[in-house]
């Protein structure tokens, strides 16, 4: 498929109409984000990391908590891993907090205390992929880009390809080409949040076509109107007793216990969580995994959040080096 010719098939008047309608919709309904207008690359990085695999409604909560605790890059870089994980709290996928912490330390050490703006440098930072790179470039440096997420893929895949479930059906390269074509000049900082919000509220997994401002030009609409049923989205596995459930429990106990140098006896921790022998075997394995992921430390029979404050010198720079804002 020639992407360029596919994109050129989109009538210019439709592009202008979609831009106009969505911008009007944004003025009325879109919630402004604290990182949207101030060209702050640090805020943009934190927002990008918070937005990975997280629903829009929760992103603000995590972002606010992080910025209040660590208002500058140096403050975050100087924090211990345990402090960072405590601030991250129960926001889920705590590996993101570890990566963010490492990224900020790299920015201080290797990039003169600033978040880089070029794609080549950004993509090498821990936990920074194409989506977060685009978020930093848009909101931190005012570049004209689209940060493709599931919401944007769903809207463009339905509008222009007629796909009902674009996450599974649409060609990601075509979505990227469409996104580039649709992006209004110098408005990426408004356009991206608008699309993300529109996908989270109107063009959702079960789209609200009857109230959609784009319904007259949407290629998926006739199929949806003809009664095609959308395949149910993948049923999520039961959370209780899942690995994520137990990992969350372990980290919660350690967060609550943690006050810098305090630690916990591994066996006591496991027994406090479950008396069931099979579950205890599972917990032992999960504790080893958490240590490998650098979310907790293990020393003899003790266990604690983040890096060991003294004995584990693998990340000793965290305890001993002090970073300053550039
Ligand atoms: S008409 Fe329906 S499918 Fe098309 S963009 Fe609007 S909400 Fe999405």
Number of helices: 18
What Rg do the Cα atoms give? 23 Å
Main β-sheet: number of strands, strand sense, barrel status? 3 strands, antiparallel
Query: How big a fraction of the residues is strand?
Result: under 5%
Helix percent band: 55-70%
**Content-based structural category:** mainly alpha
The CATH homologous superfamily name of the domain at 3-31 and 146-225 equals Helix-hairpin-Helix base-excision DNA repair enzymes (C-terminal)
Q: According to CATH, what is the class of the domain at 3-31 and 146-225? A: Mainly Alpha
Oligomer category:
single chain
Distance between the termini: 48 Å
Shape: globular
Sketch the topology as an H/E string, one letter per element: HHHHHHHHHHHHHHHEHHEEH
Mean pLDDT: 89
Provide the list of bound ligands, each named once. iron/sulfur cluster
CATH topology of the domain at 3-31 and 146-225: Endonuclease Iii, domain 2
Number of strands: 3
pLDDT < 50 stretches = 312-321
- Order of the strands making up the biggest sheet: 1-3-2
Under the CATH scheme, which architecture of the domain at 3-31 and 146-225 would be assigned?
Orthogonal Bundle
């Amino acid at each position: 498929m020639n992407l360029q010719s596919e994109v050129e098939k989109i009538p210019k008047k439709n592009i202008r109409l979609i831009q106009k309608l969505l911008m009007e919709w944004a003025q009325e309904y879109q919630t402004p984000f604290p990182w949207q207008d101030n060209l702050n690359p640090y805020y943009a990085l934190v927002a990008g990391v918070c937005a990975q695999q997280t629903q829009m409604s929760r992103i603000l909560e995590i972002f606010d908590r992080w910025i209040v605790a660590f208002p500058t890059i140096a403050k975050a870089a100087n924090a211990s891993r345990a402090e960072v994980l405590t601030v991250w709290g129960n926001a889920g996928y705590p590996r993101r907090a570890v990566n963010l912490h490492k990224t900020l330390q790299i920015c201080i050490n290797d990039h003169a205390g600033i978040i880089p703006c070029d794609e080549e440098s950004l993509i090498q930072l821990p936990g920074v992929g194409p989506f977060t790179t685009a978020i930093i470039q848009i909101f931190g440096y005012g570049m004209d880009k689209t940060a493709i997420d599931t919401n944007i893929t769903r809207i463009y895949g339905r509008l222009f390809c007629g796909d009902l479930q674009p996450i599974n059906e649409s060609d990601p390269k075509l979505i990227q080409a469409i996104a580039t074509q649709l992006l209004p000049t110098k408005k990426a900082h408004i356009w991206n949040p608008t699309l993300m919000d529109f996908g989270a509220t109107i063009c959702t997994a079960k789209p609200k076509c009857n109230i959609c401002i784009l319904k007259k030009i949407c290629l998926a609409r006739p199929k949806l109107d003809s009664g095609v049923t959308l395949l149910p989205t993948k049923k999520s596995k039961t959370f209780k007793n899942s690995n994520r459930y137990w990992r969350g429990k372990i980290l919660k106990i350690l967060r609550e216990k943690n006050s810098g140098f305090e630690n916990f006896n591994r066996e006591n921790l496991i027994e406090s969580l479950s008396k069931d022998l099979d579950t205890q075997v599972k917990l032992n394995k999960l504790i080893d995994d958490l240590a490998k992921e650098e979310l907790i430390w293990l020393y003899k029979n003790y266990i604690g959040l983040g890096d060991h404050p003294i004995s584990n010198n693998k990340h000793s720079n965290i305890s001993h080096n002090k970073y300053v804002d550039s």
